[in-house]
# Entry
Amino acid sequence: MVAGERLDFDDGVALLETDDVLALGELADLARRLRGGTDEVYFVQNLYVSQTNVCRVKCKFCAFAATRKQPHAYTLTTEELVEDVLRQREVTGFTELHMVNGENPHVDFAFYRDTIAALHAALPDVHLKCYTASEIHHMTTLSGLTHEEVLRELRDAGLGSLPGGGAEIFADRVRRIIAPGKEPAEIWFHVHDTAHRLGIPTHCTMLYGHVETYEERVDHILRLREQQDRTGGFLAFIPLAFHPENTVFERRGWRHTTGVDDLKMLAFSRLMLDNVDHIKAYWIMMGMPLAAIALHFGADDVQGTVVREEIFHAAGARTETEQKIEQLVRFVREAGRIPVQRDTLYNELRRWE
Ligand code: V47
# Structure
């Protein structure tokens, strides 16, 4: 690695198999610095929203989705969503709106396009980071349009970037077990490939800590690396630790990943993904104390203020749902790093020396 060679499949498995977690963290931090990383740690001021939790796919890891008839099911109209977001704006500022939904079979493509257009008209200076690749694919099924046509229409309506969800684990074996109703990996890649070629940046994720093997994690990360070599449009990678509560896996006795697993995954991804600039330590998922350590294991971003979050909290996350900017600044400083508030595209907005 220090010699500048790319790590391969066997290296990846060896990294995950090591028990020397501290050495792994040190290597990842070194890799981050060798690739130009400094003491800066980024965060964004963002708001999470979800317009609908109604979903046709029955992913076994998901505690968020509902069928239309369930009492907690909701689908907001465009007007309700915009009103809600504007109300929230009076309470707290944000430069990014992060929206992920269920794949609702009872709406049409206009529902999505009109929502983006209305959000963009109401908040022209806010970056709209909306819809996972799975949702984009769902829109093609609803409309008969291609991925390119859907993405062009959304981009022209004001969409800024795509979040990285829906990736889960790319290996077919795992997808068949945890998400049998979900599109195959090739479709996830086709959506991101198309987005990058249209100038829409995206994010990428991996949902780990369930039935996948170390080899399948390595396969996942290498497929992301190959895509990034081709199009370069991934802004950041976010490892997502599986939260089992309120899912079928909880009833089967599955437990949350350990802190050591989470740190290993961060270091592993920083070392393997030599062409993605930023790795996020998602504090909503791991909590602030572990996120602070993660900043020394290759991560350089703590995602954001995240004023509302539903997916991880439905699945048992006990973390808070909001960090004020001052809290994030203090947190980054206490970890020995320099806090930098960024926009979604990693332009610096403010720094605290
Ligand atoms: O695809 C769902 C994951 C994803 C659970 O791009 C779960 O910056 C753990 O897209 N336990 C959607 N994970 C969320 C998403 C996201 C999140 C954070 C940052 C970004 C980004 C994107 O959430 C899903 C799935 O992989 N997920 N249920 C669960 N029980």
In short: The radius of gyration is 19 Å. The longest strand covers residues 234-241.
